[in-house]
Amino acid sequence: MSGTSLLNEATPVPPPQPETDDRLLEAPALYRTPEARPTLDEARAWCHRLATTHYENFHVATVLLPRALRPHFDSIYAFCRTSDDLGDEVADPATATRLLCAWTAMLQQCYSAPELSRHPVFVALRPSIAQCDLPFLLFNDLIQAFLEDQHHTHHASLAALERYSRYSANPVGRLVLLVAGYRGEDLMQLSDEICTGLQLANFYQDVVEDRARGRRYIPADAMQRFGVSDEQLIARRFDANVRAMMEFLVADARARLVRGGRLVGLVDRELAATLGLFVAGGHAILDAIVRQGYDTLRGRPVVSKLAKLRLLGGAVVGRLAALLLPRREPSA
After folding, report:
1. How far is CA 27 from CA 38, 44, 80, 85, 99, in A?
2. Which domain holds residue 204?
């Protein structure tokens, strides 16, 4: 599916308000804007700490990248992580909406008047935007996904989930390719397949946790097709119908990862090691669901430490090959 932004389509996402407070005083303390603008080195250090302490898998993956690219990935990750937590780690949807609208206005300022940005994310992100020619819409689409989560908590169809992933996941893969020097739309569409597959795998892994947040990412059309009710999911009552539905959904997500996995062979070996780790990680999540008999209602299927070590070992081998073999130059 094309990665064209959906921002021109009708959507119930509220627009950013010009009077919003860019200090983010209602946000978790970690994400509030400092009184004084940090230096670029200070902002990059802040983003690096967030990237290396908040989510282990991202840190492992970026270590495999060329050193010169890591600050770009740290700033992009920090933007994504902050956006996500402004939507999820606050008291209520109304507060989250206010914070995300303020965050959108701060993103707009980073493009239109970057010298006024004071938040470390945008101070660090601005050089990446300029050096890698990163478009506003990719960052904005991510915020729109988190805004949508505040009022749209149940999804009617697998097609609707695919549309949601075009906001919530696919922009990340496209930003990764742009930072690495790849701009071809054919490669972008393969990246979309990987990102959507990963997003769906995470949804199917986290059924119980999402329910606790009042959200359901199991599509209603699949539930209807296999005779599964909302009440059954809430009661965590697993049966043959739920199993058949999950088999179908897991197979669909895996097919996306397989289609998108062709991208690994089309980029330079250094980037391929990182992309291969993410694709393999998606398959590992789906494998964990299968090992649990597709019963994600009894608890979250986990990827074992041994499996993670195997994935990392394969990625390290790929990284060593990248150092020893000629580099494939990015295409236009």
Report:
1. 19, 21, 15, 9, 7
2. 152-324
